[in-house]
């Protein structure tokens, strides 16, 4: 499933070593990853490592290209006032299935520290909604991420629909 996602992005953006264009949808993906990391008020090293590994693998980037993409994502995220800027860019370039897969990636970031918070639930709920991902698919991806990372799904948040 992720191989199709990677192939789509590679065709869209060229290989990972090209200079990053301002309208590159990878920047929007990175900015959303950063917003998910920041959702609970602290960015842990486990979250940083998870994002670096996932993005590097999905886009087949070398370290320099990854660092450039992270910097571009951080810059875009710091200028954003909401998620819409990024989700609208992603919706223009991604299929429905790719949007669902992206929500799964975001859940993996949440669970990389072994727990999820109410704020993380809310952020992903909002992003998924803007991407047109159903509540059912959002919850399924959350469960898949928890199972993949062998994390209990306990939280104080109860936003499942």
From TrEMBL:
Superkingdom of origin: Bacteria
Pfam family, one: TerB
SUPFAM superfamilies cross-referenced by the UniProt entry: TerB-like
Domain Co-chaperone DjlA N-terminal, residue spans: 26-140
InterPro entries from the UniProt entry: DjlA_N, TerB-like
Protein name: Tellurite resistance protein B-like protein
